[in-house]
Amino acid sequence: MRLSAIVAAAAMALSAFSACCNTSKTEAKEEENKMIRLNVTVTTDAENLGTVIDGLNRLAAASRAEEGCIGYEIYQSTISPTELVIVETWKDQAALDIHAGTPHYGAELSALDGKMKMKLDRFEF
Question: For every residue of the chain, which 3-state class applies, written as one string?
Answer without folding.
Answer: CCHHHHHHHHHHHHHHHHHHHHHHHHHHHHHHCCCEEEEEEEECCCCCHHHHHHHHHHHHHHHHCCCCEEEEEEEECCCCCCEEEEEEEECCHHHHHHHHCCHHHHHHHHHCCCCCEEEEEEEEC
